[in-house]
């Protein structure tokens, strides 16, 4: 296995399971703009991609209506959804082991920093990270490659030869795509909200079925 010096992590579906809070917030936003959906459970397919895109592309909303739906999503999520979340088993051990091995650890999530910071604090993860900001509310930093490049730059990983020693851990094809665009290796995890087929088709460098497998890939 390659000896990576910098490890970037997605948040939703990789470190924590956000299904209850996210799907409830998505349902709230859809109901408020008068859009019917099959069930709250059916909305888990939207965990991963940028939410504005999901509102617009899945339901044919205009940019304005998609922005309105996103505002309503945040209205619910900012109060109730962010904490309705679960930490995957083994995450503390993984991050502590990476820290003990001297690895740089950064967060690369499309979730706005105001939420991601609260979630890391909720589960006692903040101190493991060298840099842990998320996306921006104004959409200037929303795509996975944008947030990944930004996070890596904050720990001095910018040149191609430096990025060769970095890897992104994420659960969806959007994570793998973002890593590839940025010139970074990737570990696709199947315990989140992507499929093994999608991760492989997108070109994941490694695929892990459990947190323990992620640890073995990163630390041997």
Fold topology:
Elements lengths: L5 E4 L6 E2 L1 H14 L18 H9 L3 H19 L4 E2 L3 H10 L3 E4 L5 H10 L21 H11 L5 H4 L2 E5 L2 H10 L2 E5 L6 H7 L3 E3 L2 H9 L1
Parallel strand pairs: 1-4, 1-5, 5-6, 6-7
Antiparallel strand pairs: 2-3
Helix pairs in contact: 1-3, 2-3, 4-10, 6-8, 8-9
Tally of separate domains: 2
How do the strands of the widest beta sheet line up side by side? 4-1-5-6-7
Alpha-carbon distance between the termini? 7 Å
Structural class: alpha/beta
- Shape type: globular
Helix content: 40-55%
User: Can you tell me the CATH superfamily of the largest domain?
Assistant: HAD superfamily/HAD-like
The CATH topology of the largest domain corresponds to: Rossmann fold
Mean model confidence by pLDDT: 92
Biggest sheet details: 5 strands, parallel
Total helices: the number is 10
Percentage of residues in strands: 5-15%
Radius of gyration: 17 Å
| CATH architecture identity of the largest domain | 3-Layer(aba) Sandwich
Low-pLDDT segments, ≥5 res: none
Output the CATH class name of the largest domain: Alpha Beta
Q: Using DSSP, what is the number of strands? A: 7
H/E series: EEHHHEHEHHHEHEHEH
